[in-house]
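Dear support,

Our group has been running a series of protein-ligand predictions, and this particular one with (2Z)-2-iminopentanedioic acid is the one our PI (initials K.S.) wants archived with full inputs and outputs. We had some confusion internally about which version of the output was final, so please treat the block below as the authoritative record. The input we submitted was:
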Amino acid sequence: MNTMLKDAPAIPAIPQGSDEMGAYINDLLAQTERNNPAQPEFIQAAHEVLETLVPVLDAHPEYCDARILERLIEPERALLFRVPWIDDANKVQVNRGFRIQFSGALGPYKGGLRFHPSVNLGVLKFLAFEQIFKNSLTTLPIGGGKGGSDFDPKGKSDSEVMRFCQSFMTELFRHVGPYTDVPAGDIGVGAREIGYLFGQYKRLTNQFSGILTGKGEKWGGSLIRPEATGYGCVYFAEEMIHARGESLEGKRCIISGSGNVAQYAAEKLIQRGAIVLTMSDSSGFVHDTEGIDHDKLVWIQQLKNERRGRINEYADHFSTASFTPADRALDYNAIWSVPADCAFPCATQNELRIKDAENLVNNGLRLLSEGANMPSTPEAVERLLAGGVLFGPGKAANAGGVGVSALEMAQNSMRVSWTRDEVDTRLRDIMSRIYNASVDASERFGAPGNYVVGANIAGFLRVADAMMDQGVV
Ligand code: NDP
Ligand code: 2IT
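Confirmed final output from the archive:
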């Protein structure tokens, strides 16, 4: 363990910048807290981004005069709507639907839809806010948005999910369009839901257009879009580890989640010769001491995508694996206690806390690449960086999904379909450019190797400059 720590000097912390700009950011954050009560995730994301921007404002006081941050912290539009639908027992159900159109400075609003009981305004505002900077990092022409519902697809029949999606789109269709806002999937929204949503949009508008991404490959979807977030997260990890003269081959990896992002992160890691030890869902995690290989992953994909079962069934089926149930009463998440070289949190926000970071560092973790959005708490991030862990923040490391969504939009506009290889090559290129932009910005603004700082600044600068050019809107 000590040799690991010797190899891995602490990553520089967030540069302070001037007292004057520090006070300005603190005031703005205090005001943001007052204006957005009961939105803890949004406040967390605002802190996480704004606190890294002090040195940028020192270098660019013109952004303060133009009130760039005051404008950026308010969504351009936040839609809230009723979604009534009828369940299989013929009972009326009512859910809430949302779409946050946060920033259109760089292109049509772009970002996923999340269907999960925990969805509320604050959660979607955090996701849409993060999406602004993530989308900017891709350098593709996409603004930031996010939406969803507190609808829980778990345990619902396909017909119930279809009726819900149709009702959701019956309101959403007024607010989206290929030049306005282009949603996609996120937690609880995969190929099935995108299909139902697209069908209803087409029926309402009589238009077959690139209104959603993540479409089926036979009807306008891009090859590699299903894989893109997970693959991209591993490509980002490779960029980080190659810079240290190492590779992923033979590395012990722990992955949380077993949905879209986790499955394809696992697939790419297995292709790279890494050993995938864990996967999870909200009921707990499985630990396979021999590693989850290609065939076992296919089994998990069938379990999750077709049978829609629970992850403990893996441990019932494969004798090399054990199952540990989730225990929300604990202040740590047992999955992060499994000794590993690399970690890939791919489930949800705040799933990795300070004690988890402590466990990971003490067990010699070298690298963490965030497949999920904001999975690590701010205290956990600080601990990982202090422990010298190469840290890929979500808005950089998981940008491959939205990057390929933008490629899907481009293919739809041109009415062409690129091959798997062509899209994968472009994805690799996008991830490599995001990595380089994060490295450059981290160096330019005084925190070399701190990709949290680098990604925030590189993402912010492009949006801020577009806003300066476009006047006070
Ligand atoms: P899926 O719905 O396909 O999978 C989500 C996985 O995370 C499931 O295993 C789920 O378990 C688990 N999970 C969800 N909520 C919780 C929770 N509260 N506690 C524990 N486990 C939980 O979603 P995705 O794979 O698409 O998304 C995963 C993460 O990646 C999210 O943070 C999302 O925002 C982010 N992301 C997704 C992108 C995409 O293209 N899909 C792009 C970029 C980021 P269970 O089934 O039991 O709920
Ligand atoms: O968080 C994300 O980047 C996504 N859920 C994907 C968004 C998209 O529009 O592809």
